[in-house]
Amino acid sequence: MLTITPGKLSWPQLRAIAASFEPIALAPECEAKVRASAAAIDGIIACGKPAYGINTGFGKLTKVRIPDDQLEQLQVNLVRSHAVGVGPLLDDATVRMILALKIASLARGHSGVRWEVLQTMVAMYNAQIWPCIPAQGSVGASGDLAPLAHLTLAAMGEGKVRVNGEIVPAGDALRSAGIAPIRLAAKEGLALLNGTQASTGIALIALFSAQRTFAAAVVTGALAVDAAGGSDTPFDPRIHAVRGQPGQIRVARLYRELLAGSAIRESHRYEDVRVQDPYSLRCQPQVMGACHDLLSQAAATLLTEANAVSDNPLVFPDTGEVLSGGNFHAEPVAFAADQIAIAMAEVGALSERRIALLIDNNMSGLPAFLVAEAGLNSGFMIAHVTAAALASENKTLAHPASVDSLPTSANQEDHVSMATFAARKALDVATNARRIVAIELLAACQGIEFRRPLRSSERLEMAHALLRQAVPRYEQDRFFAEDIELADRLVADGSYVPFVPDLFEGAAC
């Protein structure tokens, strides 16, 4: 059982939510705060004071006063009208993250929802009833309206949900689980729809994927240094200390540790013909270090947002005030997601260049295209083309979504973040980079074997052996896509994370 203490979600908890299902419970102390928040809404209705979204219309219709006997219908209409998402459905892991984040935010006690609403949402989570949420339709302000409307609609017993991989009517799924659908009270539909949980949830999934790929890319980069007969001098700590960039210093240390004790390196230490290696080998600490810093900054932003209250208006029970603001604007999430995309585009671009180096016998000193009898065999020739295609695709995808804005809601919402698209795009870039790194893993391990009987370091030989448990050596041309898929699985599941411990301080992979 994973206990959610609102405002205190941790990296281990978020990673656990993303990785697999585990029942959740809310910390007991949050119930009083939630009930006080709901009581404040009742007080506002009782005194008849106009308050946005509670007894008024929404957006441009904020001046329309809604009679008390229509307040529930107002919330129901809001949810139904906002459930306008299109495109492919988000996967279960992403929906699970979004639902958990929404529960945690509402449980902070500033949203005015009743305790019973949270109990229903927790029950849905624990019954593994995942709302069908289309991926497209949010501009990231006023929050992720369309995605969260689909989530809320399911809790009302309307729309569709996915249970055990099967799409079924939400009402049927709730009945089967013995869960009563939510009947929305004043403010509740708005509280459920406002917020950045969809963009934040997708961005967290992208971050976790990016960090696992980054770890593997450091390992494959070190393998490529040995496979290409490169130097370890560029990883000397003195070089990085005089610059002072924290990510660069950390990553350089990891390369030194990975290459320490390599017999391949020792064999040419005093007879290097190349005075300096190509940048894709030599500048790894500088490029990967900069990417590390971007990912770390994005992680810090997303952890803060995962614990945030981001709907509107906000209830402050201690004074009975309801304050209208803009916490739903997802600009921090948009920037974080764009940072992930930019960093991972560079990780993939650098990896692609190392693949190109390894297959070029003039540069690497290895057999052309990393295969015996080149000509009869094409070897890694077209695997590199795949890597190049993915790297090129990432260059377009890495263009920041956050620099765009289209006014909506009759110009009431006249600047938006595009955070949900930024997050989806970041995940696509991270996936492309992961597949490039998987191809480099195959190429670098193949290159290491052409250096036999010399061996690399103990840690890199273990990394090599891990691949060879899944993929045999490439002796002659064969169906290559399966090899790439198997290597990709190793990168995707984090198999290479233990080779670079403490890579992301405070947000370990």
UniProtKB/TrEMBL annotation:
Identify which top EC class this enzyme belongs to: lyase
- Which pathway or pathways does this protein act in? Amino-acid degradation; L-histidine degradation into L-glutamate; N-formimidoyl-L-glutamate from L-histidine: step 1/3
Q: For this protein, what is the EC number?
A: 4.3.1.3
Q: Which GO terms describe its cellular component?
A: cytoplasm
Molecular function (GO) terms for this protein are:
histidine ammonia-lyase activity
| Subcellular location as annotated | Cytoplasm
Q: Where is this cross-link: 5-imidazolinone (Ala-Gly)?
A: 141-143
What's its catalytic activity?
L-histidine = trans-urocanate + NH4(+)
Q: InterPro entries annotated for this entry? A: Aromatic_Lyase, Fumarase/histidase_N, HutH, L-Aspartase-like, Phe/His_NH3-lyase_AS
Pfam families in the record: Lyase_aromatic
Post-translation changes? Contains an active site 4-methylidene-imidazol-5-one (MIO), which is formed autocatalytically by cyclization and dehydration of residues Ala-Ser-Gly.
Keywords attached to this Swiss-Prot or TrEMBL record, sorted alphabetically, are: Cytoplasm, Histidine metabolism, Lyase
Single Gene Ontology BP term? L-histidine catabolic process to glutamate and formate
- Main localization (coarse): cytoplasm
Q: List-wise, which residues carry 2,3-didehydroalanine (Ser)?
A: 142
Give the highest taxon in the source lineage.
Bacteria
Gene3D superfamilies on file = Fumarase/aspartase (Central domain), Fumarase/aspartase (N-terminal domain)
Q: Give the family, as the similarity comment puts it.
A: Belongs to the PAL/histidase family.
Q: What is this protein called?
A: Histidine ammonia-lyase
